Amino acid sequence: MFLGKRYLKANYIKRFIPLRSLLTAKLERVAKKTPIEIIPAKTVLCHLQDETTHFTYIIKGAVELTNEAKFCRTLKAGDDAANFPISMPPKCKEHVKTLTNSVIIRVDKRLLASLNTPIVRPKAVEVDEIQFTSDSLEGKIFHALHKDYENDKLTLPTLPDLALRIRLALQKPNTTTKAIARIIQIDPSITAKVLQVANSPLYRGITPIKHCSDAIARLGFEGTKNIVLALTLRRLFRSKHAILKKRMKILWQHSAEVAAMSYILAKATQGFDHDYAMLAGLLHDIGTVVIISHAESYPELIAETADLDRTVDALRGQIGAMLLKKWGFEETLVTVAAESECWHRDPGSTADYCDIVMLSQLHSYIGTSRMAELPSIDEIPAFEKIALGKLTPSRSLLVLEKAKEEVSTIRQLLGSPN
After folding, report:
1. So what CATH class is 161-414?
2. Closest to 120 measured CA to CA, from 22, 38, 201, 42
């Protein structure tokens, strides 16, 4: 559409901020002095805090933007958010990289100054705030959540009590398996589940275990802590509203699926703890739980699935990271919540838990309509780092195909939200 032209027409660029404040004659002058640029995929347009003298806009394609807090978002040409510059003077507020072959324009700040155009800095867009108009349904809940988020007033769930008690107990020196067992046995249902996990094929014990303390000894303290947290997390996936309750159930099923696959991938990859990877998989979408819970306050939003989906897509990363920080989790899990859908993230040559979860997510979508909008497994940097096996014709990792029974076992152990 644009590739055969050197310049865009004035009536096209008038959509951009702050260009829209220009009179037609001045817009035409800007258009004639601003050539389009064709940029290959995976090109860095701007590093965080780089000095810049141009307002850069995406015309065609998609870019990935990562802010100082390492929150990552994707911006596509044509989005409402693309009416704002992806970088602007005096310094880049985000690291900007093209995800696809793209077309951009860079409008010189000095040119705008020569036209006596006031430079209006848009409000920060770190959480995609500008994708919604303030009077739209999804915009209302977005702005309400974002306002509470900025003012530290967003109601977040507390860490499940049982998991918190175990964490505190393990921080004490000389903690024994019996002491941890006494805490777990406060909750008979979790006790039964811990015994079930310890006796499952995943841990391949020779002798069946009947006592909680023996189960802890088999699983180890860290393994027990991660498994108990995983088992208690499902109680957060609840809603009183019938529609949201169904959505929570689907979300838990997806999280459990990703957790199971993360377990298998970590088990087959040197340097990863499989129980920890399972927990990472369960937590990757925890921000969505918070957003769906808050949707109960917006009855008109509940029936509008597309509106709620847009709100979830825009906020879940930051809200999830915020929640895990509140719970006192390490940066590894915070990164998983914030970046596990930044498909082209590539922070270094070594794989991390976020890479494990990303691959697990893509695998979970194979055979679904979601795959049409996502990259293939072998197209993302995480695949190159983990490289556990060749892709099958269905683009499924061979190692996961061989572990179907284990994946099924883990899903059954995690169960469904009550």
Report:
1. mainly alpha
2. 22
